[in-house]
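Input structure tokens:
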């Protein structure tokens, strides 16, 4: 699936609405369209098969903090899990996680720790040994450490310190002490964290829930999908600027960490070098 330019796909449907009750059929259709467009393949199944092996242990990092009651739709996460299972990944080798189980409960995710099927639970203080990457140091979630592949499932929203919080910053929920790394608008810490081999070489895909109405503005009704996390976040920033130009004036200059992530070799930040594909469906 390698391309001369990284591709970011934006699929929009006004049926993909903010709120807890997301139509699963709509989420599945949007995801399948996005994966076909992302890969250039004839089917979404082929795209998933190109990215994941039946032998993989897949960690799905959601953002369940619940900013303004905005979570990645459980229906979307369920669709991701089903697509993984369809390409041979064992359900018990799929882990949906965030910092705490209680946050996942609040987001509407059905908890399952140790039972049959997809595993859904929080790190809950279960971290590995101390590690370092650039100016970042910390203890990563044992769930992430166990995985062979990571799917990043953030939400799209502005952030008063870092400008935006999307895929790269989502991994602040993958280690034990994110509060210690907020100096200088989290730069270069977000980039250095994502450059750690446990994240950098396990990362496979970003599936961003961009339904919400950041700051109470009009909803976006969108899904953003990419392989390159830096390109994804740069396009996410652009998408917010395009839809909320007035509100984003103060936020956009803060997002310096995206350029730093490019300098770490994590992806492409220059919009002119990113292919953006937009699809709108009923």
């Amino acid at each position: 699936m390698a391309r001369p330019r990284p591709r970011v796909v934006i699929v929009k449907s006004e049926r993909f609405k903010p709120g807890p009750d997301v139509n699963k059929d709509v989420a599945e259709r949007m995801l399948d369209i996005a994966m076909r467009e992302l890969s250039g393949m004839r089917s979404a199944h082929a795209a998933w098969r190109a990215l994941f092996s039946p032998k993989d242990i897949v960690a799905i990092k959601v953002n369940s903090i619940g900013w303004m009651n905005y979570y990645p739709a459980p229906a979307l996460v369920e669709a991701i899990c089903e697509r993984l299972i369809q390409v041979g990944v064992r359900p018990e080798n799929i882990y949906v996680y965030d910092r705490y189980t209680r946050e996942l409960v609040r987001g509407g995710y059905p908890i399952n720790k140790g039972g049959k099927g997809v595993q859904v639970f929080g790190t809950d203080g279960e971290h590995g040994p101390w590690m370092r990457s650039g100016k970042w140091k910390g203890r990563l979630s044992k769930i992430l450490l166990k995985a062979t592949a990571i799917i990043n499932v953030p939400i799209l929203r502005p952030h008063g310190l870092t400008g935006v919080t999307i895929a790269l910053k989502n991994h602040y929920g993958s280690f034990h002490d994110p509060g210690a790394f907020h100096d200088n608008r989290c730069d270069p810490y977000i980039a250095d964290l994502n450059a750690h081999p446990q994240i950098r070489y396990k990362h496979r895909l970003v599936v961003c829930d961009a339904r919400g109405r950041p700051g109470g503005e009009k909803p976006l009704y969108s899904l953003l999908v990419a392989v390159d996390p830096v390109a994804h976040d740069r396009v996410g920033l652009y998408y917010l600027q395009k839809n909320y130009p007035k509100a984003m004036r103060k936020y956009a200059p803060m997002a310096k960490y995206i350029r730093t992530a490019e300098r770490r070799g994590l992806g492409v930040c220059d919009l002119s070098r990113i292919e953006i594909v937009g699809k709108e469906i009923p």
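Residues 24-39 form the longest helix (16 residues). The chain has one domain: 7-280.
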